[in-house]
Write a structure and sequence with these properties.
single chain, alpha/beta, Rossmann fold, 6 helices, 6 strands, disordered C terminus
């Protein structure tokens, strides 16, 4: 259970970690029921950034919205990264802008991260055993 102080501090920490600011556009691929979206509803709002919501997590729609809405930030559970990776693996998908993806929980496989990063995205794993996968992942 969150308390006000903890939610506030976590939201500010999330905003700092992923680099949110007033010009950011955040794409919701992370369910808000996951611990209140890891406090991102408050983090995105606290910096005055824009929320872009999906009706359903579909890789084709994720990549379409990244380009259409000029999205530089999103969070994704490892299962979402796997579906994005599979979509990227079957198509020539390069991003026109830098994308910062934060994931947490069970570490995604190195091949999943590598395939996502081939699009131009940077994947940050905020906790877990990711350090065994190599230097291409930033740590919080």
């Amino acid at each position: 259970m969150y308390h006000h102080r903890g939610a506030y501090l976590n939201a500010l920490g999330e905003a700092l970690e992923i680099g949110l600011n007033h010009a950011s556009v955040y794409l919701w691929t992370l369910p808000m029921f996951h611990c209140n979206g890891w406090c991102f509803p408050w983090a995105v709002t606290a910096v005055g950034a824009t929320h872009v919501c999906l009706r359903k997590v579909v890789p084709e729609e994720i990549f379409r919205l990244i380009e259409k809405e000029n999205v530089p930030h999103l969070c994704a559970a490892p299962t979402v990264l796997v579906s994005m990776s599979n979509y990227v693996g079957s198509r020539e998908t390069g991003l026109k802008r830098k994308l910062q993806i934060m994931t947490a929980g069970a570490p995604p496989a190195p091949t999943v991260i590598a395939r996502i990063e081939q699009t131009g995205a940077n994947v940050t794993h905020t906790y877990g055993l990711t350090e065994v996968y190599g230097p291409h992942i930033a740590f919080a």
